[in-house]
Amino acid sequence: MEVVLALVIGVLYGAGLYLMMRRNLVQLIIGLGLLSHGANLLIFTAGGLRETGAPILAEGEKHFAAMPADPLPQALILTAIVISFAVTAFALVLFLRTYQTVGTDDVDRMKETDT
What we know:
It is a multi-pass membrane protein. Keywords: Cell membrane, Membrane, Transmembrane, Transmembrane helix. It holds the Pfam family Oxidored_q2. The protein has 115 residues and is an all-alpha fold. It has a single domain (1-49, 69-109), classed as Helix Hairpins. It has helices at residues 2-20, 25-46, 71-102, 107-111.
């Protein structure tokens, strides 16, 4: 399973970087989203895949019967999802305002408007 996730992470990174190097701003935003999803999967995979229960002790117990799942990667991924949503929303609003002002979504043509 970890090999499959490693391949998916590589595909997401590759597709994200490819789209981010395009001249179109919409493709850049989509590439940013794919790259963040790849980073989330990387954190998830680095946390280790285990078939154990949640790290919650029943009342009166002092020790876990088996090694529980680590909650830290899950908390990091949830935080990264929220941050990624905020960055994507900001990028979409910035793109909309730029498109309304300049009239194009081509990055090379935007350079011509600086003069």
